[in-house]
Structures are given as C-alpha cells and as structure tokens.
UniProtKB/TrEMBL annotation, chain A:
One of its GO terms (cellular component) is ATP-binding cassette (ABC) transporter complex. The lineage of its organism: Bacteria, Pseudomonadati, Pseudomonadota, Alphaproteobacteria, Rhodobacterales. Pfam families: CbiQ. It is found in: Cell membrane. This is Cobalt ECF transporter T component CbiQ. Belongs to the CbiQ family. It is a multi-pass membrane protein. It comes from the Bacteria. The keyword Transferase does not apply. InterPro entries: ABC/ECF_trnsptr_transmembrane (IPR003339), ECF_CbiQ (IPR012809), ECF_transporter_component (IPR051611). Its main location: membrane. GO terms for biological process: cobalt ion transport. The chain crosses the membrane at residues 59-80, 92-113.
UniProtKB/TrEMBL annotation, chain B:
This is Cobalt transporter CbiM. It comes from the Bacteria. The chain crosses the membrane at residues 7-30, 36-55, 62-95, 101-121, 133-158, 170-192. It is a multi-pass membrane protein. It is found in: Cell membrane. Gene3D superfamilies: 1.10.1760.20. PANTHER family: METAL TRANSPORT PROTEIN HI_1621-RELATED. Keywords: Cell membrane, Membrane, Transmembrane, Transmembrane helix, Transport. One of its GO terms (biological process) is transition metal ion transport. GO terms for cellular component: plasma membrane. Pfam families: CbiM. It comes from Paenirhodobacter populi. NCBIfam families: PRK06265.1-3, PRK06265.1-5. InterPro entries: CbiM/NikMN. The lineage of its organism: Bacteria, Pseudomonadati, Pseudomonadota, Alphaproteobacteria, Rhodobacterales.
C-alpha cells in the first residue's frame, strides 16, 4: 500500500518524506500519533524491512525508560523509591509513536535510494554545486574505502589482533584509520589528475532527470495530505 | 550515539539548528576550490567509513564520531563532511533523521570545527610527539564531550521535562570520549610521522 504513496521520482520522494516527517514530529496528542503509527505500520506491512527498526539510539531508549519516572503527575505504580506517573507514561508513549512512525517513513521512502543517484537529485533541487559534487563523489568512493577497511581488519585478525578495551586496541584502530585517511588523500590526488586529464571544467555533467509523471505527483499530494490531516486532527 | 531522531525536538530547536548548519556549510563551501572539493569528498568518505567501525568498550561497543579529527584536517569543511555522513546514514541504513539533519550536523561538527581552530595550529607546530598526542587527545575527547553537552542542551531547550534524562545521558558520553581521545591521538601521530602536510585544512 505504501508503494502508492512513495513517488518514484527521487526529487519528489525527498520532498514528500520531509513534509510527512516534519508533520509527524510536531504531533502532541497520543491518540493522533498512535493512529499515524498504526496507519503507516499497516500500509508498509511486508514492504519495509522491520528488522531495521530495531536500531534505537541509546539515549532514546533512556528517554523512554526514564520519562515515566521523572515526570510528576498522578502516581500509577510505585517501585521502591521510584514512582511511575500516568502523565510520564503517556508522554513516553507519544514520543515512541512519533519516533517509530518517522523511522517507518524514512525506511519506506528512502530505504531503497541508490546513493549514487543522490547527486543528480540534489542538483535538480538546486543545492549549491560544490555540495552536490561532494554528494556525488562521496558515496562513489565510500564503497572502495569500506572494502579497504575490511581488508586491513582481516590482515589485523590474521596477525592475531583481538579487539578489547585497552590502549593497544585503540592504538591499532588509530593506525588503521590513519592508514585509511592516507590512502583516501592519495586517491583524491589521483582522481583530481584523472579528472583534469579528461578535461574537467569545474562542472559535473549531470544527466537531465525525466520529468516527474502523474503517479509521482499523486504520491506527493497524498503524502503531504496525510501530514496535513494529521496536524489538523492534532490541533482540533 | 549523537544522532537525535525525528519526533523528539521542538520546532524552534529544529529550525535554529538548520539555520546554523546552513550558515556553517555556506562558510565551508566558499573556501573550497576544485582540488579541495575532491579532498573533502574523499575524506568525508574515509571519516564516515571510520565511524562505522565498532570499537569494543567494556561489555558494549561504541562508534567513533571523529569530529575532532575532521576539524583539524578540514576546518570548516567538517560541517560538509558531517552532513554528508548523516545523509548517507539515512539512505544506507535508514536511521538518523530528516528534520534533525541540521541540529545533528551542528551538534557533531561545531565542536570539531572549534577544536580544529583552537588546537589545530599548536598540533601542527608541535615538535615533541607527546605534546602533539596530548593536544590531539584533547581535541578528540573534548569534541565528543561538547557534542554530548549540545545534545543535552537541545533536549532541554525542547522541553524542560527532559532535563533529568539529559544529565544521565551526559554520563554515557564519558567512555566514548575516552576511546575517541586515544584514537584521535594515534591517528594524528601517525599522520604527523608519515605525511605532516595532511594535517593542514588547506590544499597546497
């Protein structure tokens, strides 16, 4: 179902995802946020790798666990010196709904973006040229650099390196990162020379993107509409 | 570790963060010529790849921010490197945030840029390796602690209800700061031995 919402055109997809997430992040009533999460969860069932939602930042977890106990209000349950309040629990639930719903939108809209296409889309959205060039180059070389790291770590393991919480491990990781940086700088020089040899004039020739079709526009309108409806329901 | 997801911060904090991030990136872009753009792009890739390494820390593990290192090697270009890293994280792994891109960029990059401005020149001038290592450790560890302070500030500005949590959260940054200080000192020492000119943000 969510496939109907997601515009195929990357430019519009970025805009649609941003609008919907911006609306979701400003909800302040639990029933509305809960409904939004339910709608998005049902719509993206089987479409989104839910496994990826398991990643939660440490301090967000801290927020969910601590809010019920630190927010004063009607006591609900007492655990030794700790008192859980109804208000705190509701607040934690609201935040959890909003964080999860936003994460679902990110996964559904941006989970399948090829990083190599970002440059062209950001160019079409009129970001400054130097920034677009960096967005086009970085993902291209990221894969190579990650491979380099993998090889270096394999070599470390082959020599009997066992990571732990000690100075030797930190020094080894420092040398690994230093080596990777050194190779990246060398590569920057070589790529610069190669680009000059091929007559680079300071501008990337981005292929013109096809015009967004009716389906793409419908996706943006539906997505933004969902966001606006949610915000209105929240206010009213 | 320092990535605030969507759905937690108040609108004024998000907008303020985006405005500061845009100013920082504008400043960085004005100083970039063709060769510096390539260097920034490749280093952004290297820093992002480096931050994906999980470093064991007691029973758990941490991911480095490398922001102090970015500040020393890229100057204000660290704003760009952090933004690119955060965007790639959303696209490749589906976590992070869209509305919080600005806030997260500022929280991570600004301490690094300041560390690079203040500690970069003495690090490049340092003759004794011990002195250089101490300054580099200060840049790395200090940037991480400052980032923790800024994340706490963002939470507190969004709602004073978050304050007790922000205090506890700050304590969780201490182990990361320790690892970051030790590793930044090694990286800087390595580069100073092998290719000292790599430590300067300008391309000659």
């Amino acid at each position: 179902m969510i496939a109907r919402l997601v515009p195929g055109d990357l430019r519009l997809r970025l805009i649609a995802a941003f609008v919907l997430v911006a609306c979701l992040s400003q909800l302040s009533h639990l029933p509305v946020a809960g409904a939004a999460l339910a709608v998005l969860a049902v719509a993206s069932l089987g479409r989104v790798p839910l496994r990826r939602l398991r990643h939660v930042e440490g301090f967000v977890l801290l927020l969910f666990v601590m809010l019920p106990f630190t927010l004063p209000g009607t006591p609900l349950l007492t655990l030794g010196p700790l008192e859980m309040s109804r208000e705190g629990l509701a607040r934690a639930a609201l935040l959890a709904c909003k964080v999860l719903a936003s994460a679902l939108v990110l996964l559904a809209f941006l989970g399948a973006v090829e990083p190599a296409r970002l440059g062209a889309a950001l160019h079409a959205l009129r970001l400054p040229e130097p920034l677009v060039r960096i967005f086009a180059l970085t993902p291209r070389y990221l894969a190579l650099i990650r491979d380099e790291i993998r090889r270096l770590r394999e070599a470390m393991r082959a020599r009997g390196f066992r990571p732990g919480t000690n100075r030797h491990s930190w020094r080894s990781y420092g040398n690994l990162i230093g080596m990777v940086i050194l190779r990246a700088l060398d590569r920057a020089r070589r790529v610069d020379e190669a680009m000059r040899c091929r007559g680079f004039t300071g501008r990337f020739p981005h292929a013109a993107l096809p015009r967004p079709g009716l389906r793409d526009w419908r996706g943006v309108v539906l997505t933004a509409g969902l966001g606006v409806v949610l915000v209105l329901a929240d206010r009213g | 570790m320092a990535h605030i997801p969507d759905g937690i911060l108040a609108a004024p904090v998000l907008i303020g963060g985006a405005a500061i991030a845009a100013a920082g990136i504008g400043l960085a872009l004005r100083r970039l010529d063709d060769r510096a753009i390539l260097r920034t792009a490749l280093l952004s890739a290297a820093f992002f790849a480096g931050s994906l390494i999980s470093v064991p820390m007691g029973p758990s593990s941490v991911h480095l921010l490398l922001s102090g290192l970015m500040g020393i090697m890229l100057g204000s270009g660290a704003f760009v490197a952090v933004l690119v890293g955060l965007v790639l994280q959303v696209v490749l792994f589906g976590f992070g945030g869209l509305t919080t891109l600005g806030v997260n960029t500022v929280n991570i990059a600004l301490p690094g840029v300041i560390a690079g401005m203040v500690l970069g020149p003495p690090i490049r001038r340092a003759v004794r390796p011990g002195q250089r290592a101490a300054l580099a450790a200060l840049a790395g560890g200090g940037s991480v602690l400052a980032t923790g302070g800024m994340v706490a500030l963002c939470l507190w500005l969004s709602s004073s209800d978050y304050m007790p949590i922000a205090r506890v959260m700050l304590a969780t940054y201490l182990p990361l700061a320790l690892a970051e200080a030790a590793i930044t000192a090694t990286v800087i020492g390595f580069l100073a031995r092998v290719e000292p000119e790599a430590l300067a943000p300008e391309v000659r």
